[in-house]
């Protein structure tokens, strides 16, 4: 039995569609309910629905053998897991954004609101810019609107959130997409099962 940590939220539907495409039964999961564990005994697979930023925790602990997670989470937390496959979905960018018309004052540290302090620090270190991090967990766009930060470092997918809040991308930091990851120990013990799934997914991932 392969234990799989799946992210709830915006990657969930796309991941389930991919699993269905390679022949797994996802009927139970797609039903409207609050269940968190689903077993497909015929397919030899058990799914856990977890918060996206927790997928790596389950995989690092070996509770899940594999998982699906955004590259943003891998860059931010550098978990001790194998990255097996780019699933080429959930494509977006991590970018610096600011209110339209914003002019940077280079004489003082830049106040950066973000849920990715690691990515932000690394980026600004690479361009030699002093910053102050304001760590938030969501609705990052509010920070510059309320004057709490100068810019944000955040995910931009369609750009709608920025547009509707009178903001624009200032600089792009990196492209990201969903990745299939594996627990290092599981990869030794369940290599065949994992590689079979990877081979099937590779066929449908374009
Ligand atoms: C993310 C991100 C942006 C938004 C970007 O937030 O932090 O706010 O999506 O998407 P868009 O470019 O398609 O508008 P999320 O929806 O994950 O919620 P959060 O504010 O709670 O982080």
TrEMBL record:
GO biological-process terms attached to the record: L-histidine biosynthetic process
MF (Gene Ontology): ATP binding; ATP phosphoribosyltransferase activity
Catalytic activity, reaction form: 1-(5-phospho-beta-D-ribosyl)-ATP + diphosphate = 5-phospho-alpha-D-ribose 1-diphosphate + ATP
SUPFAM superfamilies reported for this sequence: Periplasmic binding protein-like II
Compartments it resides in: Cytoplasm
EC number of the protein: 2.4.2.17
PROSITE patterns named among the record's database cross-references: ATP_P_PHORIBOSYLTR
InterPro entries per the UniProt record, alphabetical: ATP_PRibTrfase_cat, ATP_PRibTrfase_CS, ATP_PRibTrfase_HisG, ATP_PRibTrfase_HisG_short
GO annotations of cellular component type: cytoplasm
Keyword field: Amino-acid biosynthesis, ATP-binding, Cytoplasm, Glycosyltransferase, Histidine biosynthesis, Nucleotide-binding, Transferase
Highest taxon, organism lineage: Bacteria
Functional pathway: Amino-acid biosynthesis; L-histidine biosynthesis; L-histidine from 5-phospho-alpha-D-ribose 1-diphosphate: step 1/9
ATP phosphoribosyltransferase catalytic domain: residues covered: 51-202
Cross-referenced Pfam families: HisG
Function comment: Catalyzes the condensation of ATP and 5-phosphoribose 1-diphosphate to form N'-(5'-phosphoribosyl)-ATP (PR-ATP). Has a crucial role in the pathway because the rate of histidine biosynthesis seems to be controlled primarily by regulation of HisG enzymatic activity.
UniProt subunit comment: Heteromultimer composed of HisG and HisZ subunits.
Matches recorded under NCBIfam families: hisG
Similarity comment: Belongs to the ATP phosphoribosyltransferase family. Short subfamily.
UniProt domain comment: Lacks the C-terminal regulatory region which is replaced by HisZ.
Protein name, as recorded: ATP phosphoribosyltransferase
């Amino acid at each position: 039995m392969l234990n799989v940590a799946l992210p709830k939220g915006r990657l969930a539907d796309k991941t389930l569609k991919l699993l269905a495409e390679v022949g797994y039964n996802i009927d139970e999961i797609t039903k409207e309910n609050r269940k968190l564990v689903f077993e497909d005994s015929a397919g030899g697979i058990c799914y856990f629905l977890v918060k996206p930023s927790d997928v790596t925790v389950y995989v690092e602990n070996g509770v899940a053998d594999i998982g699906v997670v955004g590259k943003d989470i891998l860059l931010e937390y550098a978990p001790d897991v194998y990255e097996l496959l780019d699933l080429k979905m959930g494509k977006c960018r991590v970018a610096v954004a600011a209110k339209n018309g914003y002019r940077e004052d280079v004489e003082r540290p830049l106040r950066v609101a973000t849920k990715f302090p690691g990515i932000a620090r690394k980026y600004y270190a690479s361009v030699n810019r002093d910053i102050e991090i304001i760590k938030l967990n969501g609705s990052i766009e509010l920070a510059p609107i309320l004057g709490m930060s100068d810019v944000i470092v955040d995910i931009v997918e369609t750009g709608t959130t920025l547009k509707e809040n009178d903001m624009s991308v200032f600089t792009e930091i990196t492209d990201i997409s969903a990745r299939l990851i594996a627990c290092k120990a599981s990869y030794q013990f369940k290599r065949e099962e994992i590689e079979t799934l990877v081979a099937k997914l590779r066929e449908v991932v374009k």
